[in-house]
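P.,

For your records, the input lines for the assembly:
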Amino acid sequence: MDEIANGTETFDCDVLVIGGGTAGPMAAYKAKKKNPDATVVLLEKANVKRSGAISMGMDGLNNTVIPGHATPEQYTKEITIANDGIVNQKAVYKYAENCFDIIQELDSFGIRFLKDETGDYDVKKVHHLGTYVLPMPNGDTVKKALYRQLRRARLLITNRYMATRLLTGKDGRIAGAMAVNTRDGTFLVIRAKSVILCMGAAGRLGLPTSGYLFGTYENAANSGDGYAMAYHAGAELSNLECYQINPLIKDYNGPACAYVAGPFGGYTANNEGMRFIECDYWSGQMMQEFFNELQSGKGPVFLKLDHLHNKTIEEIESTLHNVERPTRGRFQHGRGIDYRQEMIEMHISEIGFCSGHSASGVFVDENARTTVDGLYAAGDMASVPHNYMLGAFTNGRFAGEDAVEYAGSVDFAKIDEDQVAIEKERVLAPTKLEDGIPPNQVEYKIRRLVNDYLQPPKVTKKMQLAQERFAEVREDLKHMVARDSHELMRAMEVHSIIDCADMAAAASLFRTESRWGLYHNRTDYPERDNENWFCFSQLFKNQEGAMDLKKRDVDPYVVPIDDEEKDIYDKQRVEAQA
Amino acid sequence: MPLAHSPTTVPVTVDEEKCIAHKGCTVCVDVCPLDVLRIHDETKKAYMKYDECWYCMPCEADCPTGAVNVSIPYLLR
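Structure tokens returned:
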């Protein structure tokens, strides 16, 4: 395994889904269900059985809209306010209207949802305003349940191929994609009538404080390849300056899970054990308060459970130490931490792009369509703010159903053989060198620079310096050497990482205001400027092949927000009692 | 530029007595999201070839004989 084989393979399909984590499997499944005669292929860098963010399952659905507990209007309002007004409400509303159908479908797949004594869904309040969090008692089995459905539907799955670039036809519409086998370097050219990108967040952008390249919040395979591919295909990306920055267990760098502990009485606290924020829902405004508390000398910040009953803590442990990131238990055990005796130390994570928890993603409309004809995106990499796992499933369904319909109405776009030749040379270049710089060192350097210069609070001069340093490191890419196909995959990931780094700097410099709390806190423009900046920032590759940005209006709301409601998320700090 | 060899301790260990890779099992290699496990050419047992671990655990969870153990990477624990 891992020796470069030097072959090329090709195949055709109607719908190509790239990324087999969460959104991808659902998109492929729904495409096939809608048109059983269509050829639908699911391409995955790892193995669909255990790939992606939910490799080891998920403890709950964080953003359900269940009749009797929430309405699509309430949910759309909440996300609009949480995201400082800049959302495509149509897309959020459509998700809210349809996610309950997906919940019932997941139920039919064998996934259970917490019910109360009356048999009703036991939805928990975690967000600032409404009630949307629904625990899943067998959440560790989500991937297995999903995989079973893919097998039943006889979906074509191609594992261990890393997609590297999309192919576009003369008129700019989608023509297919190119990929490389991660175990033998075979180059793959896929002709496709439609492509759905479900490649996850850009999780290897900032460097975790541990310095360990793969100790990231996101599944470490999520290296931002989707963002880079969309960019190079000419698609627009929205609000990349709205970084993902999460409150995580220090050093372990995974979620402490206030969404799980909160309903049981756990809460985020400072070093005095005191609450300082009313709401533990992840938002830029909440993270800004987290940061402020750290600066005040009342840090670090902790998740406090030691005031809870032993049985309650046992129940919390049974979730946290078995689902999503089960090695949390080993970490705490190794440190001698017992939730009954001490608080769980937290810290502010490295930066990334994500629209599962934040709002930085490829621009999509309410049908998951990007600005490139025939190209779709869903899940963490598609800009429907705070869409989480249920959003990945629901928006993945919209993408699959729309893509297969689109594919039925078009012929294949002609593949440009020059594009193929250029890409094959770019991809295999590191294998042609006798020696050079290994990908892990180039990656460490880029990500360390991201930390130095892009971590908020953002400073204009620092971000400009970042652009100079990234340009210098970009020159080193041609010296990257890959000694086997595994290292070649890492080398291609480095290309995605530096593209994302450049995009993060460019987008942050473009928006000359502060918004979204810590996510886009610009020291040189500390105030929100709705007059000039109540809009999306759209990043794209221009005619000259350079990175460029423009504004895009926010569409008229479908759910109006009153003036008094607009800044509710800014008022999260616990007020001192008289 | 010539490359050096730098050692690192790996988070995933395999109990070779329990491992049945020599009988054709490749489960841990199949499921790893980072593709860092391999079957050794000589010992015919599974091992961690690359220190690029997300300490996620499918390798340990899916191993049919309980041969695989995941520790927290040294730099974090």
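Two observations worth noting. The domain at 12-66 of chain B is CATH 3.30.70.20 (Alpha-Beta Plaits). The helical segments of chain B are 27-31, 58-62.

Regards
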